[in-house]
Amino acid sequence: MADHYIDIHAHFTPPSTEEERVRAWQAMLAKGIYFPEPHEWSPERTLAYMDASGTAMQLLSNIPNSLPRLQASNDYGADLVARHPSRFGLLAALPTDDPVAAVAEAERARESLGADGFAVTTRYNGVYLGDDSLDPLWTRLDDWNATVFVHPDARLPPTLDHPAPLYEVAFDTARTVFDMIFRRTFARFPNITFVIAHCGGAFPALTGRLRLLGNESWVPQGVTARDVDEQTSSLYVDTAATAFPPSLLPAIATVGADHIVYGSDWGAPCTTESSAESNRASLLRCGALSPEEAGEVRGRALELFPRAARRMAAAGRPAAKTA
Fold it and tell me: Do the Cβ atoms of 38 and 22 come closer than 8 Å?
């Protein structure tokens, strides 16, 4: 699988009207995210990029902030997979502000939609993933040995007049991961494979600080360095917009090179063909990973998503040769 790019971090949006796209664009402008025009995702453009970049499959995710829109999005994602079973997979979104609804949607996605895994936001409508109310959801996903993709909340307001997707999302990710470590979420649900977006955001670079200070007397409900190591080493991270030494090296030190999977961030309004290609090229050439390790990163997602791997195998898709 070393020649495949299996992209775990790719976004989609359901079909929308021009008026809806303009409203979404204006909402971004109001948050200081100055995209030049409304964003529209299309499967045709996505498949063209995948062919050009040697991407065999994208695991698609989209997490709207209301339950009706989230369910409609999951339905559309499942339809995309049905139409392109060897090119797309679905990471079904879960509404983690409502544990009962989240469990119900996870069951529907698994049983009726054939989802390959699940996607959650670090903070969904104000509720962080470490919230104790989510234990029933994690229990169900643990029973299934599920893979869960964790994406930061890109809807945050600007910080110091800088748009949240630039760097605030990295701190949002670290905040959430560390809270889950203190609450021992990763230790209590060891059968869930958590994949953290963007090389883990800021959490790998700050893990040393947590190991040093996390169990000091002034820290409520402290966490030992050993517990930090055991929990963080169980996590996976992706390479979306972070396939460069300043991000990869802390991730390698924290989770290990064998826990890095390929991600492009394709389909996000902030990702262009140029930025996606620069990131992809850097994965292979920046030197943070050996050529062998970089090759393993490209196809490692198939180990985490057996349903997707079986669909690709059934289609007999050849390895995509890449530079």
Answer: yes
158-195 confidence digits (pLDDT tens): 889 888 889 999 999 999 999 999 999 999 999 999 99
Burial of 24 (0-12, 13-18, 19+ CB in 10 A): middle
Using alpha carbons, select from 120, 112, 59 the residue that is nearest to residue 84. 59
CATH number of the domain within which 181 lies: 3.20.20.140
Give the integer Cα–Cα distance in Å for 127 and 131: 7
Residue 320 counted as domain residue? no
Residue 140 in any domain: the answer is: yes
Give, for 294, the enclosing helix (H) or strand (E): helix 291-299
Q: How are beta strands 88-93 and 147-151 bridged, if at all? A: unpaired
Q: For 31-167, where are the alpha helices, taking DSSP H only?
A: 43-53, 67-83, 99-111, 135-143
Q: What is the largest CA-CA distance in the chain?
A: 58
Does pTM surpass 0.85?
A: yes
Spatial distance between the Cα atoms of 124 and 30, rounded to a whole number of angstroms? 20
Tell me what pLDDT residue 322 has: 39
Q: Is residue 199 part of a domain?
A: yes
What integer is the mean pLDDT of 191-216?
98
pLDDT > 90: what percent of the chain? 84
Residue 143 pLDDT > 80, yes or no?
yes
Nearest 10 degrees: CA dihedral of 187, 171, 168, 71?
Answer: 10
H helix intervals, 119-272? 135-143, 168-182, 185-188, 203-213, 225-232, 245-255
* % residues pLDDT > 70 (the chain): 97
- For residue 322, being part of any structural domain is answered with no
Strand order in the sheet with 260-261: 5-11, 55-61, 88-93, 117-121, 147-151, 193-196, 236-238, 260-261
Confidence of residue 3 (pLDDT cuts 50, 70, 90): low
Q: Which domain holds residue 84?
A: 5-315
Q: How many domains does the chain have?
A: 1
